[in-house]
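Q: Structure tokens for this one, please.
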Amino acid sequence: MKWVAEGVWRLKEFPAPSINVYLAEDVLIDAGRRWDRRRIFAELEGREISMLALTHAHPDHQGVAKDVCEARGIPLACHADDVEAMEGRRPMQEAAPGNPYNRVIKRIWQGSPYKVDRVLTEGW
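A: Here is the predicted structure, written as tokens:
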């Protein structure tokens, strides 16, 4: 992890930096892509995590959200506009779903749907 400010670290990334995952005190912010699972779990080893908060529900931000929340027994938080996508009730990436690039991203980056425990709104 790389220290970026008081109480804030950026987890390692490959290739660096392209998809940012942060730990702010004990809140994990974003959950990378599905293929980031091993690295994220290794970097969080021995650290207390109280919640996972998504900046938005796209495949490169929620990839291992379900895995982290289940493994750590922590709640998932995301903005009200993203709850349906995170819970699998609408597509994660709605723009150009037939685009070959977007189909590949969905297949290799996107994680499983997961129940949102805390809905974030503007100003929260």
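A few notes: The longest strand covers residues 2-5. The chain has a mean pLDDT of 90.
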